[in-house]
Every structure is written in structure tokens, then in C-alpha cells.
């Protein structure tokens, strides 16, 4: 059996695709999401499924400890869980900003802290943070979301520098538009319609498996090779 991988937001989309690929490669898994029934329905071998709100640090830590008791120390954490609530800064509900920062930033840091100290102690481990092209440039109606993803890029690079001497890798993957449930969280029908039109103009966008391929590529490099950042988008996506 290979080493334990922890994946957040694994109940659908990119997280589900990553889980399937890593399971096929022989890794035991800890899958975290709010919809634990969706995790269990994947029916992957050597997998512990936990209903966890990643913004609650104690429950995140407890889930990791339970999985490590079963499968050994976590060698990989994929911080994939995220929320995208697009809106105009002048009118958007402030609660949506708070939700995004709680999940996209605080949840990600909770995950990193849950695994980092043991990784540093044993001089091995990998953290892959799923960010976005919106963590490198801005888009209309994306102000708060871009803020969270710019934060993911900054946090990831800062921690990468902090742990590099301990042979621990921190990798940022920045997808462009991907066919997932992410857009459905946005409450503005006009914004959603515009986003869908943008996708059609591109003639199609990335599939979740495309991002999972990038994750497994980066992770499967030798431990002394850190692919620091991957930016991946549909060829016809211009911004």
C-alpha cells in the first residue's frame, strides 16, 4: 500500500477526480466534505470518509489523526475545497465574502497546519493547494473571490519557502474555468448567465480530470523535485 493522501472537498468535481486517480494508483485516502454520503458512494478501497467542516480546526485535526491511525502518516494533503460566490462589491452580501475567506483561506490553513509539523519532522511530505487563475489576475465580479485566491498563492509560496529546507513540497495549482459545481454557489442569475456565455465562447472548458492529472503529475515527481506552480486552462481561454 502506498502512502496516505488527504483530500478536501472530495464529494464532487476536482476533488472526486483526484480521489479516483490516487486510489487507482494505490493510495489509501482520507476524504473530507460536508456531503459524506457522496464520499461513501465513491466506494473506493482503503478510504476513510469524514463529514468535516474545514473551517473547524479541531474536527479537521481529529479526522487526520483517525486516518493516520489506520493508514500511517499523511504524505499528501490536497486542499481542494473552495467556494466561489461571485458578486459586485457595491451590492454583494458581506456574508458571502466572509464565507469565501473562511473556506478558501482559513480552511486551507487549517489543513496545512494539521499535517505540516509531522512532515517537517520526518523530512518528507507534499501539500498541493488548488487555487485559481483568479489568484493571479482579476476578473469582473470576482473581487472577494480573487482576494481569497491571491491569498492562497501568497500563503502557499510563503510556506513553501519556510519548509523547503525540511524537504517538504508546497505546490500551487491554478486552474482556469473548469466544469464543476463551483459556479452554482453564486446567487446572481445574471452573473451565472454571463459566465456560462463566456464558457460557450471558448468552445468548452476543462474537465475535472484535467486538474487531477496535474495533481498526480506534480505529486509523482521525486521528492527532491518541487513543481512550484501549475497554471492550467482551456487553450482558448484568453484571460
From TrEMBL:
Pfam families named among the record's database cross-references: adh_short
Coiled-coil segments on the chain, per record: none
Keyword terms, alphabetized: Oxidoreductase
Protein's recorded name: SDR family oxidoreductase
Cross-referenced Gene3D superfamilies: NAD(P)-binding Rossmann-like Domain (3.40.50.720)
InterPro entries linked: NAD(P)-bd_dom_sf, Sc_DH/Rdtase_CS, SDR_fam
Family designation: Belongs to the short-chain dehydrogenases/reductases (SDR) family.
Amino acid at each position: 500500500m502506498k502512502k496516505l493522501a488527504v483530500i478536501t472537498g472530495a464529494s464532487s468535481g476536482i476533488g472526486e477526480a483526484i480521489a479516483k486517480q490516487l486510489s487507482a494508483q494505490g493510495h489509501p485516502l482520507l476524504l473530507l466534505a460536508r456531503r459524506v454520503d457522496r464520499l461513501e458512494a465513491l466506494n473506493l478501497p482503503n478510504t476513510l470518509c469524514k463529514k468535516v467542516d474545514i473551517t473547524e480546526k479541531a474536527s479537521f485535526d481529529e479526522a487526520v489523526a483517525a486516518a493516520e491511525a489506520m493508514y500511517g502518516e499523511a504524505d499528501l494533503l490536497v486542499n481542494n475545497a473552495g467556494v466561489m460566490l461571485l458578486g459586485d462589491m457595491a451590492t454583494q452580501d458581506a456574508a458571502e465574502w466572509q464565507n469565501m475567506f473562511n473556506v478558501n483561506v482559513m480552511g486551507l490553513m487549517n489543513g496545512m497546519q494539521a499535517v505540516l509539523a509531522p512532515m517537517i519532522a520526518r523530512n518528507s511530505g507534499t501539500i498541493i493547494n488548488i487555487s485559481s487563475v483568479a489568484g493571479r489576475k482579476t476578473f469582473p465580479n470576482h473581487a472577494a473571490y480573487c482576494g481569497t485566491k491571491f491569498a492562497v498563492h501568497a500563503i502557499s509560496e510563503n510556506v513553501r519557502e519556510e519548509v523547503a529546507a525540511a524537504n517538504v513540497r508546497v505546490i500551487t495549482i491554478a486552474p482556469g474555468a473548469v466544469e464543476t459545481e463551483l459556479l452554482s454557489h453564486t446567487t446572481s442569475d445574471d452573473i451565472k448567465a454571463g459566465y456560462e456565455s463566456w464558457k460557450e465562447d471558448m468552445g468548452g472548458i476543462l474537465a475535472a480530470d484535467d486538474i487531477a492529472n496535474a495533481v498526480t503529475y506534480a505529486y509523482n515527481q521525486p521528492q527532491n523535485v518541487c513543481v512550484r506552480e501549475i497554471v492550467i486552462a482551456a487553450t482558448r481561454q484568453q484571460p
